[in-house]
Design a protein that fits this description.
heterodimer, A: 317 residues, alpha/beta, 6-stranded mixed sheet, 4-stranded antiparallel sheet, elongated, B: 255 residues, mainly alpha, 11 helices, 74% helix, binds adenosine-5'-diphosphate, binds magnesium ion
Chain lengths: 317, 255
């Protein structure tokens, strides 16, 4: 059985439209495989290339080079085979007919997935319930809150009964409770055997719902791992928590090559952050030499890795 | 077929929710009154029926140019084009359904002018050749729909399509001979008009309300259908290329 999503060396370049614009390499030889049934996070800051990859996989954008397949079908050549298999949810409020009701919107999209009319009505009803819009179904979308529009988007992505779902920042604008419900929904979808590619810049979201996460920045993949083991992959980003270390020792450690930060904690301890392989050993040696024995090393959380790799940029929305 | 019906239903629902597409149904009776007043003033009672028919053709043209022509652009601006294209149904099929709905609504103007002519001026449309008339109207709606697809595909690439269509609708009425027969236009323009299906439609439609027999009815009808089919094929071809180009350049969405 082919993998649900296979991306091989995909590059996408946007040529400038105006003279003064620059050429943008949105994806730079990206490769990625998502087995069937996996929930895969695509995590990266704004402009990383997430949406570009989602668009290529959903057949609405061509790669400049490289190949991509969904359930074994090429997304450039075999669009007829790919389209019935996929559902897409683009973030934001646009992408719906605002003057129609939620139900009317869904019925239209259902018909485009070639369901018979009775099935369209039935699926629409179930989905509206599933995303919690049943009691607002017959109101115009323009009267929906941002979060409600997002939920309608989600329902739209599901109406074709897709095997593979591409969700691009699906929770932007949702309140925290809706966000939690969203995670439950993702769990249910996984239970139904669907494969999901979830593009997000929200680390907590990636960490809580994804089986594996791909970190992407400036069009390049940095790592693909389970959220927990991402920390291991990037083991050079270790941190050392110490208690009772004398100030001069900490000062000398801070000056070491490969030590990215030394911060004092409120209880009088300190956290030493290391960003180069081998530096941890040197830090530990110096601490032990200075007679400091209350030392603990640990791996950073996904969030910290993200910040280390991508920088504070990643936290801007 | 399902895609066609989905488009048809969608457009009816959109129009019901936001009836601005029906603007020309407000102006058609007004144009009928203006034209009737003109022919009255010049003492040409023989042209009264023509004065009533012209607004019907104008309405179809207007709907094609101002509304159907901007359907793809509208979807694109609302970020609907990409999701539509990612579904298994082809955009051309959906578009056809949407345009068919608009043409159907445009044909309602026929009923309007009948009522207005009767109520205000006591003038009716003489149904001398009713079957031929119905066929001509249908063929015209078909050809207009074909042209509208071509418009829609071209306009989505054109930044100032609205300005263009606003200024172009009147010259096109003239060129299409909707009220003044093309025969009265300057000689050099006549060959251009004969390539416009609307001029054939207008002439034939006027012939169906005259007592005299209609010369060459079937071949003239065939000409409308043929010109319509040609716009249709051309429209699909343009649409195909425009979509392929936008997919390559990343222009199916506006940022
Ligand atoms: N249609 C387009 N035309 C030109 N540049 C684009 C287009 N789409 C995206 N880009 C550029 O490609 C880069 C990646 O964008 P995107 O894939 O939207 O990132 P993300 O979704 O991770 O925020 C950005 O620099 C963006 O400006
Ligand atoms: Mg994005």
């Amino acid at each position: 059985m082919p993998d649900a999503v296979e991306v091989e060396d995909v590059t996408r370049v946007f040529e400038p439209r105006k003279k003064k614009d620059e050429r943008v390499v949105a994806l730079d030889e990206v490769s990625l495989t998502i087995p069937e049934g996996e929930i895969h996070g695509l995590l990266g800051p704004n402009g990383a290339g997430k949406t570009t990859l989602v668009k290529i996989l959903s057949t609405v954008l061509l790669p400049t080079s490289g190949r991509a397949r969904v359930c074994g079908h090429d997304v450039v050549e075999e669009t007829k085979a790919v389209r019935p298999l996929i559902g897409i949810v683009f973030g934001g409020e646009r992408g719906l007919y605002w003057r129609l009701t939620g139900r009317q919107n869904l019925e239209y999209w259902g018909a485009l997935y070639r369901l018979p009319p009775a099935a369209v009505r039935e699926r629409t009803r179930t989905l509206l319930e599933r995303v919690g819009l049943a009691d607002r179904a017959d109101q115009r979308v323009e009267q929906y809150s941002r979060g409600m529009k997002q939920r309608l988007h989600l329902a739209r992505g599901l109406i074709g009964d897709a095997k593979v779902l591409f969700l691009d920042e699906p929770t932007t604008g949702m309140d925290p409770i809706a966000g939690r419900e969203f995670r439950t929904l993702i769990g249910e979808l996984k239970g139904e055997g669907r494969t999901i590619l979830l593009a997000t810049h929200d680390m907590v979201e990636a960490e809580t719902v994804c089986d594996r996460v791909t970190l992407i920045d400036r069009g390049k993949i940095i790592a693909t791992e389970s959220p927990r083991s991402l920390g291991h992959v990037i083991s050079r980003f270790q941190r050392v928590d110490v208690e009772g270390a004398p100030e001069p020792v900490l000062g000398r450690i801070a000056a070491l090559e490969g030590v990215s930060a030394v911060t004092r904690t409120e209880d009088g301890g300190a956290r030493i952050e290391v960003s180069e392989e081998g530096a941890t050993a040197e830090v530990l040696r110096r601490l032990v030499d200075a007679g400091v024995t209350s030392v603990r090393t640990s791996l950073p959380s996904l969030e910290e890795v993200y910040v280390q790799l991508i920088g504070e940029r990643g936290l801007e929305v | 077929m399902r895609g066609f019906l989905a488009g048809f239903g969608l457009e009816l629902r959109i129009v019901r929710a936001a009836p601005d597409a029906l603007m020309p149904l407000l102006t058609a009776p007004l144009f009928a009154l203006v034209f009737l007043a003109i022919v009255r003033q010049s003492g040409r009672a023989d042209l009264e029926a023509d004065a009533l028919l012209a607004p019907v053709l104008m309405t179809l043209w207007w709907v094609a140019l101002q509304h159907a022509g901007h359907l793809i652009t509208g979807d694109r601006w609302q970020a609907l084009l990409e999701p539509v294209i990612a579904t298994p149904t082809s955009l051309a099929t959906i578009l056809l359904g949407r345009i068919a709905a608009l043409m159907g609504l445009g044909l309602l103007s026929f009923g309007e002018v009948l009522i207005v002519g009767k109520l205000v001026f006591g003038v009716g449309v003489p149904f001398e050749h009713p079957v031929e008339m119905a066929l001509t109207l249908l063929a015209t709606a078909f050809a207009t729909a074909g042209t509208a697809i071509a418009f829609a595909a071209v306009f989505v690439m054109t930044r100032n399509a609205y300005t263009f269509t606003n200024s172009l609708s009147f010259p096109l009425y003239l060129l299409g001979g909707v009220f003044v027969p093309v025969a009265f236009l300057p000689g050099w323009i006549q060959p251009v008009s004969s390539g416009v299906f609307m001029s054939w439609s207008a002439d034939l439609l006027r012939a169906t309300v005259k007592r005299d027999g209609i010369g060459d009815f079937w071949s003239r009808l065939a000409m409308i259908v043929a010109l319509g089919a040609a716009s249709f094929l051309l429209g699909r071809l343009i649409l195909f290329h425009v979509l392929a180009r936008m997919r390559a350049k990343g222009e199916l969405a506006t940022v």
